[in-house]
Specification:
monooxygenase activity; mainly alpha; three-stranded mixed β-sheet; 10 helices; 178 residues
Length: 178
């Protein structure tokens, strides 16, 4: 019994408590610094990503539960039916969170008009020559002037219509079978 009392009041026990207090104090200090840093980063990101002159609310975000409910529809009926449902439910602009990314969709003529009617400077994708010239050559794609590129795109669109594609099936089958 005496040994127990001796241990309780020994200096080793007191030293152990002070080490534990030091550890707890360090943990609280770390937690406080972490929370302050997180708040500062969140405020800094909010200032960078928000436009103070914009009065419109952000587009609605489709939550993960709604996406999981749409997965069978996507697999059975395809993406067109799924996008039509999302368009009818959320409107012409909505955002889907996928893992850590947010993807905003612009669906319908009321929001996609600027992409088709905007000037070259408004809808430019930058210097695509670095990517397309090695693939298609100097005379194709983005390595040519805007009028030639528009003509090529119209040619590609006409060639990829379902009626045109159906006409290529028989020659392709003959080529594969030979």
């Amino acid at each position: 019994h005496f040994e127990e009392l001796k241990f309780l009041f020994s200096t080793d026990r007191t030293m152990h408590n002070s080490n534990m207090d030091l550890t707890i104090d360090a943990m609280w200090l770390f937690l406080a610094i972490f929370l302050i840093t997180a708040i500062i980063i969140k405020n800094a990101n909010a200032r960078v990503t928000s436009d103070p002159g914009c009065t419109r609310p952000p587009p609605p975000v489709v939550n993960i539960i709604a996406l999981l409910k749409l997965l069978p529809t996507l697999c059975t009926k395809g993406p067109e039916v799924t996008m039509t449902y999302l368009y009818n439910t959320f409107g012409s602009v909505f955002t889907i969170r996928f893992l850590w990314k947010r993807i905003s969709f612009l669906v319908g003529p009321e929001v996609s008009g600027p992409f088709f009617q905007g000037s070259e400077s408004e809808v430019s994708q930058g210097n695509m020559n670095e990517f397309t010239v090695p693939m298609f050559g100097q005379e194709n794609g983005y390595a040519v002037d805007y009028n030639t590129r528009s003509q090529e795109i119209r040619f590609f669109i006409d060639a990829l219509k379902p009626s045109q594609l159906r006409s290529h099936v028989d020659p392709m089958l003959r080529e594969v079978e030979v």
